[in-house]
Every structure is written in structure tokens, then in C-alpha cells.
Design a protein that fits this description.
- The chain has 14 helices and seven strands.
- The chain is of the alpha/beta class.
- It has three domains: 50 residues; 212 residues, P-loop containing nucleotide triphosphate hydrolases (Rossmann fold, 3-Layer(aba) Sandwich); 69 residues.
- The strands form two sheets. The protein has a five-stranded parallel beta sheet.
- Strand 6 and strand 7 form a beta hairpin.
- It is globular, with a radius of gyration of 26 Å.
- It starts with a helix and ends with a helix.
Length: 353
């Protein structure tokens, strides 16, 4: 608006420099010129944002239909994630004035889709996905490696969040490896997740925070195994069966890092604790199919030989040792195992790909 004001004052001065013209009410002139200046400024701003990333609907696309489709089509074996993530994001974006920032905490063992879902969210809410200047990914082990520097880290983290939300209130923050964060570091961001309408003139309630952690993975695995042993369908497992266990595991973490004794938990500022379940062989097979297509080894899913998928499955490890029900690494090592097996398979079968 500053440009519009300068424009308005310039025209007003020019008008009053003409003899006999200033008997007209200045307030009326100023109001009219200010309105014109505002229109010109707004038009210029829209023109600039056509080429430059701005915090507006052109760059923050909020594609909820695409989000739902991607979660259903690309994410395997995670019915609790699909339902909970979609529901909370829809609710948060439904209004321009949510009551607080959306805070989702993803928990589960390695390779089950925590980073993958974060990417899906970014790609459907922001035109440039993870490359958007309004999507902020922070790795605990990279950015906060030293336990003894917590006071310095707290100030840096505060400044980082305040600066980014000042630039765009619809920012997305992704904290990876939360379980490796120094003790109580996360408590410094508590005010930004609370119900304050403004802090220092900034509205943090439109932002989204994702916390990714392995904490609770063992508990989730045990609950899922007992569920399987009881002969129950995977899809019958409900969030209420798992969420409380995750919260307890996080706040009582053995390594005293991440959410250990965190005020974010004790003051109930985390919107939902979302469990990522261990993946069974049927889910791993789907990941293998997707990987073969994405790597262009095959053009159509129907042309992928089942014996090839079986060979790749055999390269992976499963637990428990006797039952061999769940993948030890989820789908994390599928990509490298595909390349390993395909090197021999293409030669032996003389495939025409």
C-alpha cells in the first residue's frame, strides 16, 4: 500500500499547485486518488506475482481433490493416515481464520511413508511443492547436532519461524527426525502453535506444522502384530487404539530428546498423533510395482511379471523372525533392490522393455 500512498500524495500536490483548485475539499480528492492509487498498486502487485512466487492463490493452490487422490492411489497400507491427514487439512483450510495452527505428528518405523506423505501434502497445497519458498523442511541432525547449543538453537528457530510466517501466513513447516532434536528445544515454538490471534502483529494460526518421528514405532508395531494375531483385518484398527500409546511413548522417550516432557504435548497443542503402520508383503509388492513403473522398467502395471516381484521381495527382510509378517524397512529399500534385481533379470529373460 506504500506505493499507492506515494502515488496519491503526488497527484494531490500536483492538483493543488494549480491556482484556484484547492477550494475543492481535500478529503474528497484524497479519497478518490487513494482509491485509484490502490487499484493501480493492486494491479501492479498481481502483475508481479504472475512471474514471482507470492503468498496468494496462484502459488498456494490448496488442491484438496488432488491430495485425496494421491493419498488413496500412491500411499499403501496406511488407512489411518489417509483418513486423518485429509480430514484435518480439509478442516484447517476450510476457513481463512482457523482457531490455531494445524500440528500433525507423524509416528512410525522407517520406510512407512512419513516423508512421502509430507511431500504429497506439499505438492497439493503449493504449486512448486517442496521447492516452494513457503515450504520449509528442517532436519534435526543437520540443523541441531549439538546438545550443548540449545539456547542458541532456540533463538535461531524462533527467528526462522517468525521470519517465514511474516512473509507468508500459509507456510508449511516440516520437522524431520524430531526424535533426535535436543532436549526441550521444541518448547520454544509453543506460542506459535497456541490459540493466540496475533503475536507481535503476526497471525500464526494459518500455518501448518508437520513433525516426523520414529518415536512410538515399536509400540505401533506391537499393536499391529497383536491385531494381526487376533485375525482382525488391518482396516479395523482405529486411531483411538494407537494414539494414546504414541503420546506416552513420545513424552517418555528414553533418549530424553524430541518430545520428551514437551509442553507441546502437556498443553495439548498437537492436533493429532498419526500412526504409520508397519507394511505387510502385499503393500511392499505394490511399492515394487510403483517403483518398476516410475523407473521406466515397464510401461504398464499389467505387464510386470509376478515372478520378478517375488524376486525383489526376497531381497528384503521381514519380522517377526518366525511369522515374517511385516517389512523391517517398509518400502525404503525397494528402489535399490529393484535396480539390483533388474540388472540380472533383464539379461536372463531378455526382456523387451
Amino acid at each position: 500500500m506504500r506505493a499507492a500512498t506515494y502515488f496519491s500524495l503526488s497527484v494531490l500536490i500536483l492538483h493543488c499547485s494549480i491556482p484556484g483548485s484547492c477550494f475543492i475539499q481535500v478529503s474528497g480528492i484524497y479519497a478518490g486518488v487513494a482509491a485509484l492509487g490502490s487499484i493501480i498498486y493492486t494491479g501492479f502487485d498481481s502483475f508481479v506475482c504472475h512471474f514471482k512466487t507470492c503468498c496468494d492463490d496462484k502459488w498456494i493452490i490448496k488442491n484438496l481433490t488432488g491430495l485425496e487422490a494421491d493419498l488413496q492411489r500412491k500411499l499403501h497400507g496406511q488407512h489411518l493416515v489417509q483418513k486423518t491427514v485429509l480430514g484435518h487439512i480439509k478442516g484447517h483450510l476450510r476457513t481463512n481464520n482457523p482457531s490455531k495452527a494445524l500440528v500433525l505428528s507423524f509416528h512410525g518405523p522407517t520406510g512407512v511413508g512419513k516423508n512421502f506423505v509430507s511431500r504429497i501434502i506439499a505438492e497439493n497445497l503449493y504449486r512448486e511443492g517442496l521447492h516452494s519458498k513457503f515450504v520449509h523442511l528442517i532436519s534435526a541432525t543437520k540443523e541441531f547436532p549439538h546438545e550443548g547449543m540449545v539456547p542458541f538453537y532456540k533463538e535461531r528457530l524462533k527467528a526462522w519461524i517468525e521470519g517465514n510466517v511474516t512473509e507468508c501466513e500459509r507456510s508449511l513447516f516440516i520437522f524431520d527426525e524430531v526424535d533426535k532434536l535436543p532436549t526441550l528445544l521444541l518448547d520454544v515454538i509453543k506460542p506459535y502453535l497456541d490459540y493466540y490471534e496475533h503475536l507481535g502483529g503476526i497471525n500464526y494460526r494459518r500455518a501448518i506444522f508437520l513433525f516426523l518421528s520414529n518415536t512410538g514405532g515399536a509400540d505401533i508395531g506391537q499393536i499391529m502384530f497383536e491385531h494381526w494375531q487376533a485375525g482382525k483385518r488391518r482396516e479395523r484398527l482405529e486411531l483411538s487404539h494407537v494414539e494414546n500409546n504414541i503420546m506416552k511413548a513420545a513424552i517418555n522417550a528414553d533418549n530424553h530428546n524430541g518430545f520428551w516432557h514437551s509442553q507441546l504435548i502437556s498443553t495439548h497443542l498437537i492436533t493429532a498423533y498419526i500412526p504409520f503402520l508397519p507394511l505387510g508383503k502385499e503393500h511392499v509388492r505394490k511399492c515394487i510395482r510403483d517403483g518398476l513403473l516410475n523407473k521406466n522398467y515397464f510401461k504398464e502395471a499389467g505387464k510386470i511379471p509376478q515372478d520378478l516381484i517375488d524376486l525383489i521381495v526376497k531381497e528384503l527382510t521381514f519380522f517377526p523372525a518366525v511369522e515374517q509378517v511385516f517389512s523391517s524397512t517398509g518400502c525404503k529399500r525397494v528402489s535399490e533392490k529393484i535396480d539390483l534385481v533388474m540388472a540380472d533379470y533383464k539379461h536372463s529373460k531378455r526382456l523387451e522393455l
